[in-house]
Write a structure and sequence with these properties.
It is a single chain. By secondary structure, the protein is α/β, with parallel strands linked by helices. It has 2 domains: 215 residues, P-loop containing nucleotide triphosphate hydrolases (Rossmann fold, 3-Layer(aba) Sandwich); 44 residues, no CATH class. It is built from 10 helices and 14 strands. The strands form 3 sheets. It has a 6-stranded mixed beta sheet, with helices on both faces. Strand 12 and strand 13 form a beta hairpin. Helix 4 crosses helix 5. It binds adenosine-5'-triphosphate (ATP) and magnesium ion (MG). Adenosine-5'-triphosphate (ATP) binds next to strand 2 and helix 1. The site of adenosine-5'-triphosphate has 13 residues, from strand 2 and helix 1.
Length: 283
């Protein structure tokens, strides 16, 4: 079990994260928050690229900083900016990454081929990555993060730049990887994690706002989200969340404690929750 205990991170006098306490057990955790909320900061502390200003992160009770290489050997990490050599093939890049992790060649070779197969890149494993699409590169990134068969797989914005087909493929891949490990992935795109995350971690105002299942986060808005035609006059407490094109024309989803006249209640989605929680432009 991975536990974050009262962790604070300051950059000089700026507090990026304040008093975060969280535990991660097996399954997929979606770190969902707007730009600048502190997702990468939290992730970098989990992989020991940054150190907390206060608090401690433990794996099964041991401070990860005191575990050193033992901890890093248990964690697979895809950074938000994933660096690779354009003239390398996935296979040679993976071999390089394996060497950096002191894996011997005999162990590394079959593992690399197995992982490239898992992420659907067997056919192009010897092609230069120069011509790869964003989705193919992300899959190389996930494969390299899986080299040591990590107990904790951490992916920082893994779906940025993926097309819809690649997103579906990514979701299926994460499902298959999450059965016996902790997967933590960050995003500010709600639809990317709505269906894959067992738990959503929400940060707001540099603090932990919630760590709960998507269903339970949505349930808190049950009976308070309405769909009204665009242009409907709203009450003082009503909060328009998003516009969309309905069958009968432009519609607005509205948060309301008391239903606007003629409004139909709709089932709240995670996007409604996200828009409501971050309504005032908070990070
Ligand atoms: N090295 C640094 N020095 C000073 N401030 C920093 C540093 N790194 C991050 N910050 C600030 O800390 C806050 C959190 O940044 P972080 O990169 O963790 O956010 P994020 O949620 O990952 O954002 P994004 O969605 O854009 O990737 C931001 O306000 C950022 O400007
Ligand atoms: Mg980030």
């Amino acid at each position: 079990m991975l536990s974050v205990e009262n962790v604070t991170k300051k950059y000089g006098s700026f507090t990026a994260l304040e008093d975060i306490s969280l535990t991660f057990e097996r399954g997929v955790y979606g770190l969902l928050a707007p730009n600048g909320a502190g997702k990468t900061t939290l992730i970098k502390m989990l992989v020991t690229l940054l150190f907390p200003t206060g608090g401690v992160i433990r794996w099964d009770g041991r401070d990860i900083l005191s575990m050193g290489g033992d901890w890093r050997g248990m964690v697979g990490y895809l950074p938000q900016q994933f660096g690779y050599y354009k003239s390398c093939s996935p296979r040679s890049f993976m071999a390089y990454m394996a060497a950096l992790q002191c894996m011997d060649r005999k162990t590394a070779r079959p593992r690399i081929d197995q992982l490239l197969d898992l992420v659907g890149l067997s056919d192009v494993r010897d092609r230069k990555m120069r011509a790869f699409s964003g989705g193919m590169l992300q899959r190389v990134g996930i494969a390299q993060a899986m080299l040591t068969d990590p107990a904790v797989l951490i992916l920082d914005e893994p779906t940025a730049g993926l097309d819809p087909k690649e997103r579906v493929r990514f979701r299926n891949l994460i499902h298959s990887l999450a059965s016996d490990r902790i997967v933590i992935l960050s995003t500010h795109i709600v639809s990317d994690i709505e269906t894959i995350a067992d738990r959503i971690v929400l940060l707001r105002d540099h603090k932990l706002y919630a760590c709960d299942s998507p269903a339970s986060i949505c349930r808190q808005l049950a009976g308070k989200i309405y769909a009204v035609p665009a242009g409907t006059s709203l009450g003082p407490g009503d909060l328009p969340l998003s516009e969309y094109q309905g069958e009968a024309g432009a519609m607005v989803r509205v948060f309301s404690e008391a239903p606007p006249a003629g409004a139909a209640a709709v089932t709240p989605g995670l996007e409604d929750a996200f828009l409501y929680i971050y309504r005032d432009g908070q990070t």
